[in-house]
Amino acid sequence: MKITLLSLVILGCTLASLQAADFIVTDAGIAPAPIIVVKDAPPRTRDAAVTLASYIEKMSGQKPEVIDGEPKVVPERAIWIGVQPVVKTLFPKTDFDFKHPEETLIAANEKHLVIAGRDRWDPAHMTADGRLSKKTGVQQEYGTANAVYTFLRDQLGVRWLWPGEEDVIKQERIALAPMEQRYHPQIRARAGLFTKLQLGDHKEGPDLEWARVQRVQLDSMELEGGHGFGHWWEKYSKTNPDFFALQPDGTRSPNPEARHTKMCESNPKVWNQWLAEVDEQLRDNPTKRLFNASENDGYGYGHCVCKECQAKDRPEAEKFPFRWKNHGEDRPAVSDRQVIFANTLARMLKQRYPDKELYVQLLAYGYSRPAPIAAVPDANVIIASVSNFSMRSPKERETPMKQHTDWAAKAAHIMWRPNLGNPAGLTWGMPDVAMAQAGDDFRFAADTHCIGIFFDMFWYHWANQGPHYYAVAHLAWNPRADVQAVMNDYYQRTYGPASADLKAYWELLERTRMEFVSAKPSRMRAFELPEKYTPALLAEAQSHLDAAAAKLGKADEKYRRRLHFTRCGFEFTKLVVSTRAAMQKFEASKGKDAAAKAQVLANWARVDVMEKEYPAFAINWRSVFALGAPGGRNKRTEGLHPDAPLSPKTLKEMQAAGLE
């Protein structure tokens, strides 16, 4: 084919015109486009704008000016954060009427870029009490901030790998072709995915910042992970003993313990007192929208046997072993009675506050995991399904997934709230990762119209579990994301020239834990880790790390630093396996094997050194290899120290599978 000079000229002009149509953020010889933040922006929105300016500087070496409020003279080029009056003129064909909660918008033309979203906040109530510190900059929706973090990831290619470790691509020219991108997340309650990384959990640092930029922390719905009446016995038992569950012996006594005492859910006085507490909470925080009516923990014990409560149970429901003091019998699931209770409260709530969008939360947990037979949750009741199919074997997943599906068919609003437990050493910091399964789980949650998540819980061992955290963070924002593509990108951006070796390493560990949980049905299987994590398996994993090290000898220092982080995790893995193997010998000898004891104590001494030498966030040392106070017992250390061998109860449970 002949290419004439005229064709080349036309092609050159076409390319030039296409290039001219790009919006230029930065380029050599021109000032970066200023960032103009909507007037009186809430703190989290302005923080996001400052973060954007910081990353543009990291990428290009040029830092844009951040301007608060629309200037009198509109710049020739600008990045607009939030919807400002002039933006509608600059983007006449763009719809700025956000119709969905948390909706985000990123739009660019030749001269301007707008990054905006649906924001909701009450300027008079932007601080609140958190678990350990004050929540600040509180909003009910953070659409614009999450739009900025989306832009940083999708358009500028920034990756936040783990707390304090990011990957930024250096480029002098940052340009965008004309585009418009909209999104609103289906899962609106996301902060509970990482319970310790929520606003107000502790002082904001790199770990909380990681959750924020992953668009997990700043969400738009509440979901409580716990129970609704834990404080009631202490507060009301002396003045109102009739609030509490009638026991078969005729008393209304704590069972199994005070904070787990069940309610008499058919008692109107309980309903009225619950509503009075709602009134008090709303006086303190008028923005609160969700109120917990979930029965207290200890689901097998102490349920009310008064005739009014029992009348709400369905005789044909699935039977469970109920227990009281000195008494036990098989009885139907309590799902129907609890939904009737939640509906009663929800109707009272709606009557009291007809102009507010308020919800009652009810855990589907323990003996209410099966869906109700006849009762249907009202439209302002949110079911939090404690369905433990995450990180489980295919067989273990069947029942909880069916229970979740059945609840979803009944409930207008459902959230997923699993107990993670310690399936393959998750608590201990083992490489207990299941990224592929997580992709299936979140698609399943999306298919069952799930609007919230709360995981109890991850333990933040980033060197051994970081890829799993990364995967579920992305899935929380988009439950239909291609998890394999997300992880391939993660390996490439994290490890560069050694990405294939590290992908093989992580997939080996993922495959190993899946085989382990499938072969061992007990929820106590982690105590048998040495059976699966054999010297041969560990040598195979080591070979992938060694191959990666050989490739990174002359690579960018950042890749070697990240490999070191991962290798620290693997060293810790070997130490956990070694410790448990020695403890098995010690336990089998009934505490007489001195050599095994010495090996365990030597490993504990090595942990003290690791804690000082390892990078920040590699292992959460407070969750494992910590005996606690003298004379105390840290349940997460059971089976890992000579002073904490496996108890008879644990040994019995190792032979059984059951509810968690």
UniProtKB/TrEMBL annotation:
InterPro entries in the record: DUF4838
Region of interest (Disordered), residue spans: 632-660
The protein, known as: DUF4838 domain-containing protein
Pfam families (UniProt xref): DUF4838
Keywords on record: Signal
Signal peptide range: 1-20
Species whose genome carries this gene: Humisphaera borealis
